[in-house]
Amino acid sequence: MRRITRITTVGLTAAALALSATACGKSSTGSSSSSSSSAASGSAVKAAIAYDIGGRGDQSFNDAAYAGLKKAEDELGVKGAEAEPSQGESDADKVARLTSLARAGNNPVIGVGFSYAPAIAKVAKAFPKTTFGLIDDTSVTAPNIANLVFNEEQGSYLAGVAAAKASKTGTVGFIGGVEVPLIKKFEAGFTQGVKDTNPKAKVLTQYLTQPPNFDGFSKPDLGKAAAEGQLDKGADVIYAAAGLAGSGAIEAASAAGKWAIGVDSDQYKQAGLASYKNQILTSVTKDVQGSVYNVIKSVKDGKPQTGEIRYGLATNGVGLADSNPAYVKMTDVTAAVEKAKQAIVDGKITVKTAP
Question: What is the CA radius of gyration of the chain?
Answer without folding.
Answer: 21
